[in-house]
Amino acid sequence: MKHILIIGGGFAGLWSAASAARQLEELGKIAQITLINPDPWHSIRVRNYEADLSDTRVDLSSVLAPIGVNLLIGKATFIDTGKRVVTAQVQGSTLSLPYDKLILASGSHLVRPSTPGVAEHTFDVDSYGAALKLQRHIDNLASAPATPGHFTALVVGSGATGVEIACELPARLRAAAGGGDGSQAAAQVRVILADRGPTIARGLGGGQPVIERACRELGIELWADFALASVDSRGVTLGDGRRIEASTVVWCAGMRASELTQCVAATPDSQGRLKVDNCMRVAGIDHLFAAGDVAHALIDGEHPSVMSCQHARPMGRFAGHNAVNELFGRPQQPLNIDWYTNIVDLGPWGAVYTQGWAREAVAEGAQAKNTKSVINRERIYPPRQGGREQILAAATLDLQRPPLLKPMARVS
Fold first, then answer.
1. 3-state DSSP call for residue 150?
2. How deeply is 233 buried, as exposed, middle or buried, from its count of CB atoms within 10 A (0-12, 13-18, 19+)?
3. Angle CA 240–170–230, to nearest 5
4. Three-class HEC string of 370-410
5. At what angle do helices 309-327 and 11-27 cross, to 10 degrees?
6. DSSP 3-state assignment of 178?
C-alpha cells in the first residue's frame, strides 16, 4: 500500500492529513496516511499568551481516527530523501519509517541568543508547556518571598507575540499581587515591553501607532533601542550597565524553522524555511512537500508566506491534496491567497485589525477584539464534536476569506 507520511501535528500537519484523507475518498483510492507528532495534542499555539490555557489543545486522535489517519506519537529526527525514509524515536526505540510521499510540517521554534542567562532565566509562550510554566510562575508570586522587582515583568521582543503577552501581564500580575488596583502589592506591578529596534512593534505596520497607544493606556512602559547584556534570577543588566530588577522575563524575539529542514539538500531562506512552489512541492524533490512554518511560499505570487496559522492551515490543505494527487498521477492544485490580515490582541484594551501587506489599520478596540475572538476560539479549530463527514468537509480547498472592514477614519 502507498504511504503518505506527515511530520507534525500543528495547523499545517493536521490539515495536511485531513485534506489527504478527503482527496483519497474523492478519488476512490486507498493509501496509508501516518502523522507523527511528539505528543498527542494539536496545540492552538496562537493562544498561548492567554491566562487560561484549558481550551488551547485538541486531542489529535479525536480528529485523525475518524478519518482513518494513523497517529504515531514520537519525534522525527532525520529525513533521508534519497531512500525515502524518516528516522524517529518512538517510546525509546529508533524506527525507520518508509514513505512514498512526505509532507514536512514540523513547524518552528523560538530562538534564544547566547547572551548570558537568557537560556536559564527567561520564560516564553512558544509552546503549551512553556506557557503553563509561565502561568504557574505568576500564580506563585503571591506566596514567594518578596524581592526587588517582585511584580515587574520584562517582555523582550515586540512582534505580535511579545505585544500580546505584554498586554495580558498587567492584569495577571495585579491578580497575583492581590487583585484590586488599590492594594499595596498591586501598586508595585510594572510591565516593560522592550525591543532592540528604534520603535516598538515597528514590524506591525499601520497597527504600530494603535499598539503604542494601547500599551501606554495599559500602563506598559515601552523601551526601544534595548541592549541586553545578561539575565539572572532577579532581573537583567543592560549594555550600558543599568539594571532592571524583574522576577519575570519573557523572551519573544526570533523564530526559526524546525531543524528537520536541514536534512533536505536545498537552500533555505533566512529563517531556515524550505522554498516551495505554489503546490507546496520542494524544488527538485518530487516526493517532498512542505507546509506551514517550515515552508517559504510566494503566497500570492509575490509575498512570502508568514509563520502563522493564517497561512499554515491552507498550505497544509493544499499539501495534503497535492500529495495524494501526485501519488495517483492527478493534476496539482496551486494555492494563491490574494489577501493578508493581521489581528493583534491588546488585552483588556481590545485589539487592532490590519489588512494588506502594508498592514493598514481598519479596526481597533472592541470591534477588532470580537473578530480576534471568533478566529482564535472558533474558526481555527477543527471540528471537535463532529464525525468523519464533518472533519472531511472542513478540509476542503475552499479558502476562508477574512471579514471585510471599512478603514477607520483618519485623525488629523
1. coil
2. exposed
3. 25
4. HHHHHHHHHHCCCCCCCCHHHHHHHCCCCCCCCCCCCCCCC
5. 30
6. coil
Can you tell me the distance from the alpha carbon of 245 to that of 237, in angstroms, rounded to the nearest whole number? 9
HEC profile for 181-230? Answer: CCCCCHHHCEEEEECCCCCCCHHHHHHHHHHHHHHHHCCCEEECCCCEEE
CA dihedral 251, 256, 259, 261 (to 10 degrees): 170
3-state secondary structure 305-346: CCCCHHHHHHHHHHHHHHHHHHHCCCCCCCCCCCCCEEEEEC
As a whole number of angstroms, the distance between CA 358 and CA 277 comes to 24
Which triple of cell numbers denotes residue 237?
A: 543588566
Beta bridge partners of 190: 152
What's the confidence (pLDDT) of residue 412? 35
How crowded is residue 171: how many other Cβ atoms within 10 Å of its Cβ? 16
CATH annotation of 3-109+255-338: 3.50.50.60
Q: Split the chain (412 residues) into runs of 10 and give each run's mean pLDDT.
A: 98 98 98 98 98 96 97 98 98 97 98 97 98 97 93 98 98 85 73 97 96 98 97 97 98 97 96 98 95 98 97 98 98 96 97 95 95 94 89 95 64 38
Q: Provide the grid cell at 116.
A: 548570558
Q: In 3-state terms, what secondary structure has residue 154? A: strand
What DSSP element (H or E) covers 31? none
Q: Which grid coordinates belong to 311? A: 497561512
Cell digits of residue 181: 488596583
| Domain boundary assignment for the chain | 3-109+255-338, 112-251
Q: How far apart are CA 378 and CA 338, in angstroms?
A: 23
- In angstroms, rounded to a whole number, what is the distance separating the alpha carbons of residues 84 and 26? 26
Residue 400's pLDDT is: 84
- Give the span between the Cα atoms of 220 and 172, in whole angstroms: 13
Nearest-CA neighbor of 162 among 129, 203, 190?
A: 203
Q: Which pLDDT value is given to residue 411?
A: 42
CATH class in words for 112-251: alpha beta
**405 neighbors 355 (Cβ within 8 angstroms):** yes
